[in-house]
Every structure is written in C-alpha cells, then in structure tokens.
Amino acid sequence: MSGQKSGLLASFDYLDDTIKAIKELRRAGHKDLTVYAPLPEHHIEEALGYGQGPVRTFTLVGALTGTATALAFTTWTAMDWPLVVGGKPILSIPAFVIIMFEMTILFGALSTVIGLFINTRLPHTRPLVVFDPEFSGGRFGIYAPAAEGAMGDVRKILESHHPAELREDREGLHG
Fold first, then answer.
1. Is pTM, for the whole model, over 0.70?
2. What pLDDT, on the 0 to 100 scale, is given for residue 120?
C-alpha cells in the first residue's frame, strides 16, 4: 500500500471559507481537488481555475460535419439519379438547404452528447467513496488527495480556514 494516496475531506459551512481554502491549496501546489457544493457556484469554478468548456468545440465540429455530410449526400444523390425538370439545374443548393440544416442540428446535438460523456468521464466505473450527505443539504466540501508526506501541509491549510468537519480518508477517491 505504499505510494497509495489518501486524502482529507473538509466540510465548510460558508462559501467564502471554501473559496479561500481552494485558492490556498492551489497556491501550495495541490491541483487535484474535488469540490462538493449544494448548488452550482461560479466562484468555486473560478477558484479551481476552470475556463471555457471544451464541449462547445465538439458541437461546432459535429455541426460542420453534419453540414458537409448533408451537402455531399445530396450532391451525390442528385448526380447519381438526376431529375431534369423544366430546365432547373441538377445541383440546386436552395433545394439542399433543408436537409443540410437538419443534418447540422442532428450531428451537432449528437456530438454535444458525446463530448459531454467524454469530458465528464461518464460512466463512472468506480463508485465515489468520498462523500458526505451534508454536501447536498447546504455545506461545501473539499477533498484534497495527498501523499503521506504532504498530509500535514494539507491539514494545516484546511484547518486554517475553520472547517466544520475535517476527516482523513485512507482509501480516497484517487486511491
């Protein structure tokens, strides 16, 4: 079991204490934090250093792929089975706009879902072992994994921000 990480789970009553603890842990070099909140809070995302999500890139690439696929499919169909009616051109882009729009929406939506699953690492193959039901009832939580040598440093940082509860988890989320 040597080298196995354990961590500390701190439970906070106030958002400000949680934000300060996250920022101090990150300044000390602890980047692999798991934070629990009873509601979505953008201050926590800023403290963790999150930027723009990459899912929108999946959406754009999927939508452009859908448009190109629809244009290629309709062009190939029109050239393979031409319908010459009343002198109209065989390749008429306005006639293809509807299927191009539909394929853009379809591929964009499907790639958004795929991007969401990839970036959230779903499905979880291991159960989350670090959790306190109070995190759903109003408290904020920070799980900070640390090697045995750095456990004292993490404990000192978390205790300086007055957590309501602080406990060590031997197995840990990352163990």
1. no
2. 86
